[in-house]
Amino acid sequence: LVASEETCSRALSDWMARTHLTNRLLLRQGFTGSVGEVHPATLEEIVHAAKSTQSLILFFIAIEESFHVCLVAPNSEIIWDKAKLPDGLLEQLFQSLPYGIDSIIGSGGVRSFDMFFLDLSSSRKLDDLLDELGRRLLPPKIAGAIQASPLERLVIVPGGEMQFMPFCCIRLGSKYLVERFELTYWPSVTAWILCDHQIKLWRNGQDEALASVVLGAPLFESPFKVPRQVGDRKYDLPGLAGAGSEAQIIGSRLGVEPLLREHATIASLLDACRHGQSGFVPIVHIASHGILDMTAPEDSFVALADGPLTARFLYNFDAGLRIDLVVLSACQTGLGRLHPDSLIGLTNAFLVAGACSVMSTLWQVSDEQTRGLIAAFYDLLLQGGAATMTLSRALTQAQRRLLADPATSHPYYWAAFKITGADDNPSAVLQEHRSQKTKVS
């Protein structure tokens, strides 16, 4: 487990240390030979992370053709088992939901997903597949411990192809995991420690909580041009009527004027974040197109009015974005290409750039249904109170609402969304900022 943590926390955590203050930096330690390395979490710290968050932590460690599955509980109990997936099972899942990528998901290739073949009238066939995945991915010892636990929170630390898995809709005992647990994802325990420490510094220090930022329905040039190192690529991006109304709804929730159409730009985002100053932004919400590039994952992007906000730009943005939570209300922003110690894509790019939590998606999501789920998420987040309503709890309860409605019960409508990183609710600092703004007025 410790060796896995050393591997999974390596390059991503080292890079995150540029923008997340930490006392874990070492000089030229370990096998990477980096000038500065982040000390990976020890076994004691892994157990403490489970205890401090009152969570079960579920590790999927990819070794050759199988996965070693490890469950760490707050009482220091550690349970091991092994999972081996039959050939084609993951590919069936990727072809049953609009991932929009081909069966070599970890290696490259891009294809469009024809929504005509997605049967949303019934989830029975998909549920059979999710039942089988539950039996395969959660072998008997692990499944038994999960079902017997009184805890409500399950943290997934996925390795290999498990980073593409919608665990909230994996079925255990004929129920979706989201019906039993509040789920969140950590790239590694070390990465979570960096995010958690940074949030505590912001919350307990003297840093000013700036206004949140909402960008939506950017006005695109046609075709939308994306510069790439291997040749420019052009996209025909349709308008997103739902993204504009979504941004207005979320802006009203957060008490800010959304930046729409020609104002929804990268430049506006950077200016609003005031990088380099002491303030931090509680929430950045982006409602637009998300485009996955599996052949060059660093060129995956969220489309804004002045161009693509690419993973490459974020990975190399040394000034840093001091953001508590980034919500990427766009397609496929939680995907990327497998790297030996992480995933190259937009979610991890935002963590590297300075965010502490990222909400992203695994497939091509519905414009209309996304708006409803996102609005419910914010309502729960802002009304539930920072002490009791975590990010994962708000998302889980919003997903359960859609699941309970026969019109949106199919996993397509709700299971694409995931939270990666810290789980802290920024509503307390949002209320503090509103109070300060009212006093000034």
Can you give a write-up of this model?
With 441 residues, the chain is α/β, with parallel strands linked by helices. It has helices at 2-8, 10-16, 43-53, 89-96, 124-137, 140-148, 189-204, 241-254, 266-273, 311-315, 346-353, 367-384, 391-404, 411-414, 427-440, and strands at residues 25-27, 36-38, 56-63, 66-72, 78-83, 153-157, 171-172, 175-176, 182-185, 213-218, 224-226, 233-235, 259-261, 281-287, 290-291, 301-304, 307-310, 323-329, 336-339, 342-345, 357-361, 417-421. A hairpin with a 5-residue loop joins strand 4 and strand 5 (78-83). Helix 2 packs across helix 11 (346-353), helix 4 (89-96) runs antiparallel to helix 5 (124-137) and helix 12 crosses helix 13 (391-404). The chain is globular and about 55 Å long. The chain starts with a helix and ends with a helix. The relative contact order is 0.13. Mean pLDDT is 87; it is low at 101-116.
